[in-house]
Design a protein that fits this description.
CATH architecture of one domain: 7 Propeller
Largest sheet: 4 strands, antiparallel
GO biological process, one term: regulation of transcription by RNA polymerase II
CATH superfamily of one domain: YVTN repeat-like/Quinoprotein amine dehydrogenase
Subcellular location: Nucleus
Pfam families: WD40 (PF00400)
GO molecular function: transcription corepressor activity
Strand content: 35-45%
Distance between the termini: 23 Å
CATH class of one domain: Mainly Beta
Number of strands: 20
Helix content: under 10%
InterPro entries: Ebi-like, WD40/YVTN_repeat-like_dom_sf, WD40_PAC1, WD40_repeat_CS, WD40_repeat_dom_sf, WD40_rpt
CATH topology of one domain: Methylamine Dehydrogenase, Chain H
Number of helices: 0
Length: 244
């Protein structure tokens, strides 16, 4: 049986009153993330800022956010003279929706309250941060960087707890398996499963033939999905080491 891969002709819809446009950034918007309860939307930009937008129910008739616009501006360069290389590259809300973590091109991660207060600046990476994830318990933050390392941060103290330097190229994505272990994917085509307190990977996967762009654990923590520049997505059984 032949399976057609062509798409049916669909109408192309233009922006209308059903679309709320959030304006204010002065450069490209790189990343965005909803808070867990859905009332706040965070965005990160090449203008060295993140913004927290309060989203009201339903679009306005003009297609713009119902006014007055409620937005908090989180400036990476506040109080500093050098504003270069601080593009916000990644952001992630904690599970409670009380804290927003941002990663930027200057290699620093920052933690903000939902009210826009800078709670802590996490500074150890030697290159841009491209991945950033909270664990479910919200006590640790995990970051992956161009400097080929992943770092687990203790959110309560604002200090780094452990740095993992197993990769030989940029770490493009990280994902928690549970509150203590996680996976990292890299431009070196490798996936490592690591655990806080361990000095060596507890699992190593090398099946991809290209850069690994994204990784994601299933809810049980037994299956790990990955996608790569090698034109494949894979599902790894992390218990039996089988790949599909």
């Amino acid at each position: 049986m032949d399976i057609s891969t062509s798409l049916p002709s669909l109408p192309c819809e233009s922006l209308s009153s059903d679309v709320t446009i959030l304006e204010g950034h002065t450069s490209e918007v790189i990343t965005c993330a909803w808070s867990p309860e859905g009332s706040l939307l965070a965005s990160g930009s090449g203008d060295s800022s993140a913004r927290i937008w309060t989203i009201v129910d339903g679009p306005s008739s003009s297609g713009m956010q119902k006014g007055p616009l409620n937005v908090l501006i989180l400036n990476n360069f506040k109080g500093k003279t050098n504003e270069e290389c601080k593009d916000v590259t990644i952001l992630d809300w904690n599970g409670e929706g009380t804290l927003l973590a941002t990663g930027s091109y200057d290699g620093q991660a920052r933690i903000w309250s939902r009210d826009g207060e800078l709670r802590s600046t996490l500074n150890k990476h030697k290159g841009p941060i491209f991945s950033l994830k909270w664990n479910k318990k919200c006590d640790f933050l995990l970051s992956g960087s161009v400097d080929k390392t992943a770092i687990v941060w203790d959110v309560k103290t604002g200090e780094w707890k452990q740095q993992f330097d197993f990769h030989s190229a940029t770490i493009l994505d990280v994902d928690w398996r549970n509150n203590l272990s996680f996976a990292t994917g890299s431009e070196d085509n490798m996936i490592y499963v690591c655990k806080i307190g361990e000095n060596r990977p507890i699992r190593t996967f090398s099946g991809h033939q290209g850069e690994i762009n994204a990784i994601k654990w299933d809810p049980t923590g037994s299956l790990l999905a990955s996608c790569s520049d090698d034109s494949t997505a894979k599902v790894i059984d992390a218990i039996s080491f089988r790949t599909t």
